[in-house]
Amino acid sequence: MTRSDTLFEQAKKTIPGGVNSPVRAFNGVGGSPRFIEKADGAYIYDADGKAYIDYVGSWGPMILGHNHPKIREAVLKAVENGLSFGAPTELEVTMAEKVIEMVPSMEQVRMVSSGTEATMSAIRLARGFTSRDKILKFEGCYHGHADCLLVKAGSGALTLGQPSSPGIPEDFAKHTLTATYNNLESVKELFEQYPEEISCIILEPVAGNMNCIPPVEGFLEGLRAICDQYGALMIIDEVMTGFRVSKSGAQGHYGVTPDLTTLGKVIGGGMPVGAFGGRKDVMQFIAPTGPVYQAGTLSGNPIAMSAGLAQMDALCEEGVYEELAAKTKRIAEGFKAAANKHGIPMSINYVGGMFGFFFTEQEKVTSFEQVTKCDADKFPIFYHGMLDEGVYLAPSAYEAGFLSMAHGEKELEETLAAAERVFAKMAK
Ligand code: PMP
């Protein structure tokens, strides 16, 4: 028994499933999750002292690598002044200005404490602003665990085979319409059916919770046009893609302007942070300027703001996104080449600092349906092979992978050499 095994058994007695968020339990791959003791740069270290090159990065925020000195120092400095005030601070103003500078479609922004809160609040705002009840989301996209969004959801819901959760009254769920990602026709049909009832479309601009599916050409523009035609708001959920796909998120990368944007993960530098923002006339509709209520005791927490600002400043340095994209390409292309060399069919997708790989003969995976047709047996074998080699990937075939600036030549080379060995074994 490893220390992780022991801790997992102990954890299951007091924590449901032994974890505080489902995908961590390794349901998608089997076996005990690794309990992590510390992390530094591109590496995480488990409770048994084993080091892993990490491609999860706390599910995205560790874009500079773990325990980055600039973030650590900013946090330690902020701690000296106290942990929480429940009153406005200059740090929050600086954060708002920074976010708006980086993502120009956001004219105003409000901070929250998680991605779930960001999407939940943005949807309430869209409903309040348009006086319409229905929302439209895409099958396989995950936007956190608010009631209206846990319908045909991705991520852990998909990994556990429960894309629509019990506990959500049918009366709530009926207002959530689901369309097919990368299929504009499916969206048009729903708008033709409910032309004056849909308040907003919410989408992941690169779907990262059903593996990694970039938008096909014209998809984002088409959604923008449909929203304009029917008076619905377009909410781009950049909780995963924000400051990862490019400096201005996926919206900057693809050149599309939403009405509202949700952010999370990266703007907290590893602290619990989310944000939503967008058109000023819409944002003015929330309390205290408007009637839509939204609040949070720890929103804009000074320690979280300090960590996030330090991270964003470092991300604004010259060449960061070019380097991140080049490393990501190298890993994704390297996985494919190594798999193919051993006769294992693989398809890959990557954008900016996120990537996905699929065990499939399909040349390009662009839809949820195609994701479900991939070889479900190969992923856990590859996963555990890589884990044994000291490479930590997301423990589910429905999650995207993330690179960080701390992944250097050595780590990339070692990862690809490990993949080569694992594929060689799988081919036997
Ligand atoms: N939106 C997207 C696109 C996400 O990927 C996630 C989390 N992975 C969320 C929302 C929810 O964020 P959180 O887990 O911080 O609530």
TrEMBL record:
From the Swiss-Prot or TrEMBL record, give the protein name: Glutamate-1-semialdehyde 2,1-aminomutase
Location in or out of the cell: Cytoplasm
Q: Which reaction does it catalyse?
A: (S)-4-amino-5-oxopentanoate = 5-aminolevulinate
Q: Which GO terms describe its biological process?
A: protoporphyrinogen IX biosynthetic process
Q: How does it assemble?
A: Homodimer.
Residue positions, PTM N6-(pyridoxal phosphate)lysine: 265
**Assigned GO CC terms:** cytoplasm
The Enzyme Commission number assigned here is 5.4.3.8
Which protein family is named in the record?
A: Belongs to the class-III pyridoxal-phosphate-dependent aminotransferase family. HemL subfamily.
Give the matching InterPro entries: 4pyrrol_synth_GluAld_NH2Trfase (IPR004639), Aminotrans_3 (IPR005814), Aminotrans_3_PPA_site (IPR049704), PyrdxlP-dep_Trfase (IPR015424), PyrdxlP-dep_Trfase_major (IPR015421), PyrdxlP-dep_Trfase_small (IPR015422)
Pfam families tied to this protein: Aminotran_3
- Please give the cofactor(s) recorded in the UniProt entry for this protein: pyridoxal 5'-phosphate
Q: What class of enzyme is it?
A: isomerase
Query: From which domain of life does this come?
Result: Bacteria
Q: What HAMAP family does the record point to?
A: HemL_aminotrans_3
Which keywords does this Swiss-Prot/TrEMBL entry list? Cytoplasm, Isomerase, Porphyrin biosynthesis, Pyridoxal phosphate
Q: Does the keyword Cytoplasm apply?
A: yes
Q: In which pathway does it act?
A: Porphyrin-containing compound metabolism; protoporphyrin-IX biosynthesis; 5-aminolevulinate from L-glutamyl-tRNA(Glu): step 2/2
Q: Which GO terms describe its molecular function?
A: glutamate-1-semialdehyde 2,1-aminomutase activity; pyridoxal phosphate binding; transaminase activity
